[in-house]
Design brief:
Distance between the termini: 53 Å
Shape: globular
Helix content: 10-25%
CATH architecture of the largest domain: 3-Layer(aba) Sandwich
CATH superfamily of the largest domain: P-loop containing nucleotide triphosphate hydrolases
Number of strands: 19
Structural class: alpha+beta
Number of domains: 2
Strand order of the largest sheet: 1-2-3-8-7-6-5-4
Number of helices: 7
CATH topology of the largest domain: Rossmann fold
Strand content: 25-35%
């Protein structure tokens, strides 16, 4: 059964599945990518079907993640998840087949780790286009474009949203594409113009309303999806040339915001922590080359954020002064 087409950055995805439950689960991940690109660079197809039994876990010779193991042999990519779901591609990585075990689940319940496999299809397609997917946020204004780097739940979204209220724009709070052009210039592109805000941040952003009533970003988190332009019109940006890399951490020991220079040799490791590097030497080198070019062209800053900062937004001036 044909389900439809989706635009995920520069990649168009055609989806086919025999079951509404399967379609809905895969579409849930594909629909996260809300930025409409002016042109598409490639098209892939995902065919989803129920399987009679769970697939065994692969070795993970190409990539090993918490819930997914990936192998790659002569261009073909295969991946397995702990639920027994299995993904494989053709040699050109254009046609993908996703098998989801039915016998280990009641009715047509689709395991949550299927979203990891769908994400792998997208990351592989983006990588084939010589772009690097970054799990980082961004802010931009007047020629300044800063990458916000932190661990999951480390405060990227809250800081980004707080700066937007002070006149900054953003390419997104979590997923960006990085490419280095023919002149050696690093360029960032937006993929998602939704924020993922935890309901506990509601006290700082009353203009959003009851965050807990909004749709969840993922089954793995309590964060909710907030459409940027619906709350802050004009705040969504589409591309930028990075000028700064900010390593963000929270601290309950301070009430203000502290900004310190980051040693140049720490900028590349900071960027590396915001992406996934496979074990394959060729693809690892491709990613390292793009990140190294970016690291050479930006200024690194360490930013420590105290919780009281968001109660007193004027304290963000200390960061803004350094960025300008």
């Amino acid at each position: 059964m044909e389900f439809g087409s989706f635009c995920c950055g520069p990649v168009a995805v055609d989806l086919a599945a025999p079951s509404p439950a399967l379609c809905d689960k895969v579409a849930e991940t594909l629909n996260l990518y809300t930025v409409v690109w002016k042109s598409l660079s490639c098209r892939v197809r995902i065919s989803v079907a129920w399987s009679d039994q769970p697939a065994p876990m692969l070795t993970g010779t190409y990539l090993t993640c918490g819930r997914m193991h990936v192998d790659r042999v002569e261009g073909r990519v295969s991946a397995s998840c702990r639920s027994g779901a299995f993904l494989t591609s053709d040699a050109e990585r254009v046609t993908w087949t996703l098998s989801v075990p039915q016998e280990s689940h009641s009715g047509e319940t689709v395991p949550e780790d299927v979203e990891d496999l769908v994400g792998l299809v997208l990351v592989t397609a983006w990588r084939d286009l010589n772009t690097v997917a970054l799990h980082a946020g961004s802010i931009s204004r007047n020629g300044t474009c800063a990458l916000l780097c932190a661990t999951s739940g480390g405060g990227k979204t809250t800081l980004t949203a707080s700066l937007i209220r002070r006149g900054w724009q953003t390419l997104g709070d979590d997923k960006l594409l990085l490419a280095v052009d023919g002149h050696g210039v690093s360029r960032l592109s937006a993929l998602i113009h939704n924020f993922n805000l935890h309901p506990r941040t509601e006290m700082w952003f009353p203009e959003i309303g009851d965050i807990s009533r909004l749709p969840r970003y993922s089954a793995w988190t309590e964060k909710r999806k907030v459409r940027i332009e619906a709350i802050w019109p004009g705040a969504a940006a589409f591309e930028g040339v990075p000028t700064h890399v900010l390593a963000i951490e929270r601290s309950n020991a301070i009430s203000d915001i502290r900004v310190a220079p980051m040693p140049k040799e720490e900028v590349l490791p900071t960027l590396l922590r915001q992406t996934v590097v496979p074990k394959d030497r060729h693809h690892a080198a491709q990613i390292m080359k793009a990140l190294a070019a970016t690291a050479r062209s930006v200024r690194g800053l360490r930013v420590t954020v105290g919780q009281e900062v968001y109660r007193h937004p004027d304290r963000l001036e200390a960061l803004e002064e350094v960025l300008h």
